Each structure stands twice: as C-alpha cells, then as structure tokens.
Amino acid sequence: MTSAEKSQRPGFARPKDASGPWELAVLGDHAPKTVRSGKPLPFNDARHLQAHQFLVDEAYLLDAQQYTEWLDTLTEDIHYFMPVRVTTASGAGFDTSPGMAHFDENKYSLNRRVARFATEHAWTEDPPSRLRHHITNVRTFACDDDQHLIVESAELLFRSRGDVNEAAFVSCGREDLLRRTGDQWKLARRTIYVDESVLRMQNLAVFL
User: Fold this and answer.
1) Do the beta carbons of residue 156 and residue 131 sit within 8 Å?
2) Is NAD among the key words of this record (predicted)?
C-alpha cells in the first residue's frame, strides 16, 4: 500500500515515516512487519472465509472469557497494540499519538494479564463482566507470502458489570496479521483503532 493510499484512510492514518503505528511502540521492534498486498480478497475466497471464521471463533472465546484458550490462538511474537487516538486537522497525516498507547503488549504481558484473573487481586473482573464482541465489516488482504493474511474488521464491545452501573460500549476498528501455523491460523499482530479519543469505560481489563 502506498503512502497516498494510507492517507486516504482516516480511520487508519499513520505517521508518514512508519509503515505501521506498531513501529513507534515501545514493544514495536519485535512486531512482525508484514504488510498487505493488493486489493481485498473476494468474500468467497477460501482465505477470507478462514480469516472470518477465525475472528468469529475468537469472539466466542473472549465472550466466554476463555482466556487461556485464547492465548493458544496467538503466535509467540504477537504484538497487541492500541494507540491513543487524537483529534487533528484534516491533512495532518496522523490521528494517533506517537509513543502513547492504551495497550502495548507481547505474549509475556498478555499471559501475565490472564494469569492475574485467577488471583484474588483481579478486582476489576470479580465479579466478571458480561461481554459481547460484535464483529463486522471484515476485509481480508493477501500478503507477499502465503503464510500471512491482513484482516480488517470493525468491532463493537458491549460490557455490563454488576446490577447498578450502566452498560459500556467500545467501538473500534482492528487490523490483524494472521499467520498460518501448521494447519491453523494464529494472530501475530493486532492494532486496535478505538473510535474515541477519551474512553468512557471505567477500565480496560478486557481484550478487544
């Protein structure tokens, strides 16, 4: 994808000197650098159907809070990144804050977060939230090699906790890198573009 094409996608705008915002992240050095090639795959393409099923199956695991099983769907070099969105003038060329992120994680930190849920210190999720991940607008792109796919999706997370507090929503776009490992696809990189510059949810003790 050319720089001009990137700048025409306001929901995914990036600094001009980086192929992806993960390159400006603290943990971005280890992130896979694979990028898309060409136009979106047809919806009846087997690769698109496999990628779509991956996202639906993943949403089920996250809704059911089966986080240990979810970790098994991630590669060892996973980069899980959610930059802070900023409001900028048209033509600025970016809409995320370099060096700032809500999530900037690797496999180790994600494992530690999941392990904490099983302790008595996970007060943000005890009692656990009721979650529903709605996934739509899925587009899949081939890469230069057959072992990777870039997958775009839109997500709306509904979260309810307790009996008094109002439910909360998070709307975001995601750009994922899937890697074929053996006979299955795994998530190698996720960049989450939340649709708010100021999040209204009390905490982010969940996964998007």
Assistant:
1) no
2) no
Q: Are 25 and 81 in contact (CB under 8 A)?
A: yes
pLDDT tens per residue, the chain (208 residues)? Answer: 444 444 434 344 343 444 566 565 666 667 788 889 999 999 999 999 999 999 999 999 999 999 999 999 999 999 999 888 766 667 655 556 566 667 889 999 999 989 987 776 766 666 778 899 999 999 999 999 999 999 999 999 999 877 767 888 999 999 999 999 999 999 999 999 988 877 777 777 789 9
The arrangement of strands across the sheet holding 130-142 comes to 96-105, 74-85, 184-194, 168-181, 148-160, 130-142
CA separation (Å) from 158 to 71, 83, 174?
Answer: 21, 20, 16
Residue 177 near residue 43, CB atoms below 8 Å: no
DSSP states of the chain as a string? Answer: --HHHHHT-GGG---TT-SSGGGGSTTGGGS----B-SSPPPTTSHHHHHHHHHHHHHHHHHHTT-HHHHHTTEEEEEEEEEEEE----TT-S--EEEEEEEEEE-HHHHHHHHHHHTSTT-GGGSSPPEEEEEEEEEEEEEBSSTTEEEEEEEEEEEEE-SSSSPPEEEEEEEEEEEEEETTEEEEEEEEEEES-SS--SS---S--
